[in-house]
Amino acid sequence: MDTIVPTMTLAALVDGHPQLAREFERRGLDYCCGGQQSLADACAAKGLDTEATTAVLASAVSSDATAAAEWTAMDAAELVDHLEATHHRYLWDELPRLSALVDKIVSVHGARHPELRDVAACYRAVRADLEPHLLKEERVLFPMVRDLVASTDLPSFHCGTLRNPIGVMLSEHDAVGELLARLRHLTDGYTSPADGCATYEQCFRGLAEMEADTHLHIHKENNVLFPLVVRLEAERAATEAAAT
After folding, report:
1. N or C terminus: fewer CB in 10 A for the chain?
2. What is the spatial distance between Cα 5 and Cα 7, in angstroms, rounded to a whole number?
């Protein structure tokens, strides 16, 4: 992808130029749950000048020879392995650490910054959503994806079609996306106050990194893995039908 034009979707732009994920994060452009919107539509929704934003994005990648994102060349089984090893492992390690940091800044700074109680409640909701979601993917959906890839015919799944659990995952992605947007709002874009200590800054920096990683995680599932699985399941069903 050598040219960036406003009609391209945010998802396609991130797949072609992974470094644009950070540029979209800076501008609040939703490339994960909203990845199928065009750059022009996303800019309009955020009140950004489309032409100027396109030029800045093009400049950001003009000198970068990086190829398309590695995940775009993976099959579905390779992609679920990548998701578990990269994003799932990160969240299992990071969520408890962030909980400890949030609890600490509330205990130390909560009297002067009562808004931290809302921050803590929102973060707890994020973690309460994410951890069961990871387990459902690791124990239910991802094993079925691996079975689908390994089979030459259509496996018999207890859920009927993989579109059913995928629909649940999409709904849960939307829900956690809304919680992350609220967390960003409550923290003023993860901006530590003037009287914030080093732990305060570390906590907010960690929350910002968790949000960015989760956005990329959701993008890889919503816009790459799930369409790939749906297509593969349809192909297996067509092959099975043709053989009967």
Report:
1. C
2. 6
